[in-house]
Amino acid sequence: MRYAVVLLALAMPAVAWMSNQHVFGPDNGTVSDMYPTLLAAAGYAFSIWGLIFVLDIAYAVWQLNAERQPVPAVRTPAALGFALTAAWMPVFSWGQFWLALLIIWCAWAALLWASVKLVDAPSQAGLYPWLAKLPLPLHAGWLSLAIFLNTAQVVVAYRLLDTTAMLGWSLALFGLAAALLLIVTARLRGNWAFVAAAIWGLVAVAVKQFGAGLDGSKVMAWAALVVAAVVLVQAVALQLRRS
Length: 243
Known about the structure:
- The chain contains 9 helices and no strands.
- By secondary structure, it is an all-alpha fold.
- The protein has one domain (about 1-240).
- The termini are far apart.
- This is TspO/MBR related protein.
């Protein structure tokens, strides 16, 4: 399984490159812009994928050492999370939004499972012990917001709710996102990689919505900043309590 983790970690940037080359159809950004929502993030935010891919590959190489513990306990969910992340990109480009939504939620669940196991484990010895507890929580942190951005796009794409007055249901969905972020931040004991990815995404939502012309976009922008501040305060409090 440890070799599968490496191969699947390498598959993610390979598929991302093909997606940006329109191998599967319109790139993910183009598809997203077809369905504007109040939960959309500024385009620069997605550059975090470059860091996520690099760190996931570094983690995959690090875990090749069969003697490292508790890495064996997380190889399967990590590999599953990597595989699903790679699969989401072409599926979303193909416009299969329900399937893409299922895939991204499953990817999040797998990587969160792996992150919990790593954060709960004793500190790793060796030259780069941070590789045990940084890459996967960073990936999970970004997906913790992305799953709700993707959910909002499904609502708009299939007109499941009012797409002309989106503020009500968008705030409700964003409230669920905020609750999930706070619960997971507490479970991961304020892991800074998870928190940083979440705040990065929340600030990007605020930036996007401050410049958007949709009804209610300014309200959503301020809501995103408030949630980012609360998550940061919670993480600081958790870290101080641990120390």
